[in-house]
Each structure stands twice: as C-alpha cells, then as structure tokens.
Amino acid sequence: MIAGALFLWLFLFRGQAFSWKRASLCVCASGASLLSALFLVPEKHWLCHGLFLVLLAITWIDVHELWIPDVLTLLVVPFGYLLSDAAWLERCLCGTLLGGGFWLLRMLWPGCIGWGDVKLCTAAAFALGVDFLYGLQLGVIAAGGHAGILLIRKRVTLQTRLPFGPWIALSIVLTLCINGCAQRHFLL
Q1: What whole-number distance in Å separates Cα of residue 175 and Cα of residue 167?
Q2: Domain limits at 83?
C-alpha cells in the first residue's frame, strides 16, 4: 500500500509542492485499491480496479483543486474501451457528437463548464459509446440536485464554480452498471 501511494504521488504530483491533501489522496486510493482487489473477479479485475482508481483520483483532484489532469482523462479511454461492448463506429460517433456538443456549450457560455470536463466527457463517450449518454443523464440530474441543495442552503451562489468531474465519474460507473459490465466483472 505504501509503494502504491508513493507511485501515485510520483505519477500525479511530480514537481509540485507537498500537501497533506495530495498525500491523503494517494494513501486513500492505495487503500481502496487494495480493498477492491479482494472483491473483484480474477479475469478482468485489473480493468475495473484501474478504472476505479482513475475515477477516484479524478474525483478527488477536481473537488479539491478544480482541474482534471489530462493524463487521467486519457487513462479512461483504454479501461472503458476494454470494459464496454460497444461497436467501434458507435464509439467514434458518440465521442465526436458529445465532445462537439460540450465544446459548443463551452464556446457559447464561457465558464459554464471547464475544459477538463469537456475532455473527460469526450473520452468517456469514445470509450463507452452510446450507453454513456444514459449514465451521463443520471449524473447530470444528480449534479443538478446537489447544486440545488447547495443553493437552497446558501452554501454557494450562482457565480460559484462547482466541480463536475465527480459527476462525470459517477456517470461512467453508472454506465458500466447499466450495460451490465459491472455485473459480469464484480461479485454482487
């Protein structure tokens, strides 16, 4: 577990100053990966395990620092591609259309969504195909509900920047559950 934490630190935060938040991410991710390895089916456990770690890191970094590293975004593609059964053409069309739609949203309303979120949605759509749209709908509903609760409780204003990466990560997990990949690869 300690070796995993050191590897994550060197991989994600090389050249950056030490912080306890970043160190806690590395330790928690290593511990979670160790525990998740105990509950995964042996033939594809490394895929689910790897994707879980990437999504956990994306969530943590986006919540605490409001950015999503491109290295982690690129790692979503091979894991999702190997876990999903979508056709190649479907993946390409979905990734292009969804990525173009989010790019257009970003251009029309600057600041409404970050570039990291655009790239993560595009990568997930390329990896998972049309099924990602169903998971993304549920993730957007959950994100809107969470933002609404924060607004009602006056914890944020309409100008507050909120992370969307955790909700995209939730959408990816929901997509895998919807299309049955998680049921085939996890012991439920």
Answers
A1: 12
A2: 39-185
Q: What are the tokens at 157?
A: 């204003």
Q: What is the pLDDT of residues 59-84, one digit of tens each?
A: 888 988 899 999 889 989 988 888 88
Domain membership of residue 18 (yes or no) is: no
Residue 157 phi, psi (nearest 5): -115, 180
Cα dist from 70 to 12, 77, 159, whole Å? 10, 12, 26
Residue 1 has pLDDT above 60, yes or no: no
174 touches 142 (CB < 8 A): no
CA 26 to chain centre: 16
Q: Is residue 124 part of a domain?
A: yes
- For residue 118, is it within any domain? yes
Encoded tokens for 143: 């994100």
Domains in the chain, number:
1
In a domain, 71, yes or no: yes
Name the pTM for this structure: 0.76
Model confidence pLDDT, tens digit, residues 5-45: 555 655 566 666 666 566 666 666 565 555 555 444 455 66
